[in-house]
Amino acid sequence: MDWITVFFQQYALFCLIGMVVGVLSGLLGIGGGIVLVPLLHGILVAKGFASDVAFHMALATSMACIVFTSLSSIIAHHKNQNIVWPYVWSMVPMAFLGALLATLVAIRLDARYLTVFFASFTLFAAIQLLIDRKPSPQKLPGKIEIGLVSMLIGVISALVSIGGGTLTVPYLTMRQVSVKQAIGTSAVLGFPIALASTVSYVQDALVQSVHAPMAFGLLYLPAIMLITPLSVLFAPLGVALTKRLPVKILKRIFACFLMGVSLNLLWSQLA
Question: Are 60 and 201 contacting, i.e. CB atoms less than 8 angstroms apart?
């Protein structure tokens, strides 16, 4: 069996996932984690990893991918002047701290609890996509409020391995920030959240003396090396498709997909 056959049997699916995540990120403005985690979990289980270990690895690997893909998004939003930097500087420190602390807990938390939490959050995100409710503007936040909210966003994002856009965008739009600027600012916030989580996972890996094949602690290296560049490459395609495809209908289709993923994960824990 030549190396090309081995590659397509073992790793071609990661390439496909990278393309899909990139397109969806550009098309719907979502983070990749909510798609990556259930797909990676299924693949890792199929490769022989225990379900609880596979779920932790899916969370860690997803965050490592988001570190790199978020940088591409930040550059694009900065060019389009869609980033409100005063909000960034106010939110980043507490979001980083929240993600760092939450990841340290997640590493040691029973995978069943993480799975239920992830499934519940995914169901919440699906309902939000279906409703597509536009929040009414509210007053500008104070320093204490924005600090606490940022930490909460960092904690939840780290626990479910997302960039935080599902939480950050609605919050900023309620605080008199335009939707485009809320999405751009959220993209910046996703980088320190993903970075904090990845640092925790790497630190945990460094103290381990034994690693699974092709893995560094909970980080599954083939997935990171293949998904990351392809998601970055295909994100602009998603942005271009927003001008041609009915985004509202696509959101509803994607919401139905998320609901299916959520219910399947919940059922797997209750069965």
Answer: yes
Is 165 within 8 Å of 187 (Cβ atoms)? yes
Confidence tier at 242 by pLDDT (50, 70, 90): low
pLDDT in tens, 184-224: 888 888 889 999 999 999 999 998 877 888 899 999 999 99
For residue 204 the two structure tokens come to 């945990």
Query: What is the number of other CB atoms lying within 10 angstroms of the CB of residue 105?
Result: 13
Q: Which tens digit of pLDDT belongs to each residue from 82-111?
A: 888 989 999 999 999 999 999 998 888 888
pTM, 2 dp: 0.83
Q: Where are the domains of the chain?
A: 13-270
The size of the chain, in residues, is 271
Alpha-carbon distance 155 to 105, whole Å?
Answer: 10
pLDDT at 3 over 60: no
Beta-bridge partners for 219:
216
Tokens of 31: 């983070």
Quote the tokens at residue 96: 């980083």
Nearest C-alpha neighbor of 106 from the set 118, 120, 123, 96: 118
Residue whose C-alpha is closest to residue 36's, from 220, 202, 186: 220
Q: Coil, strand, or helix at residue 60? A: helix
